[in-house]
Amino acid sequence: AADKIRLIPQDFFAELCEQIIQHLNHKIPGVNTAELCQRIQTSGVEINIGDLAKIANILSFLFSTAVRNNLSAEELVTTLGSAGSTLPKHAVQVIRHVWNEQGKTIAVSEDARNMATVGQFVDMKWKLGVAMSSDTCRSLKYPYVTVTLTVADPSGQITDKSFEMTIPQFKNFFRQFKEMASVLETV
Hints:
By secondary structure, the protein is α+β, with helices and mostly antiparallel strands. It is 53% helix and 17% strand. Strand 2 (142-152) and strand 3 form a beta hairpin. Belongs to the COMM domain-containing protein 6 family.
């Protein structure tokens, strides 16, 4: 991971660290590694999304461990150095700076520590389409609904999940959402 961190420019690495802190602070649902990876690649750095996601997971673990152990910025940097870390100097400086500026804002309650982690719903998009024909059937005229759910997994990685439904399936889906809304109104 240290080799991949070396590739990431300091400003992008700082942005990644800040987004992770915001995620741990429940201010954002997750880190959009796909968008950040694309911007890093546009700047001329060759890194893939899988490597960036691994780095984000490592940093998330690092910061959450520092919160649990109530480490100061200097203690965190000392711990990184004593662990035989081969992190580049710019990365250690960014970690120290971000932790010094924003680390103490992370509130960890006992409930949050013991709570089971599940994904978080971020957004939903849908579109209506009609399949007109295919190579095996000349005239389909088959309507369908495509739904794309954007979710943040427990580590904060944001991903899109897409699926298609027939009109009857979509009507059932809609009915279930209406039921959930009516139940939520009674709470």
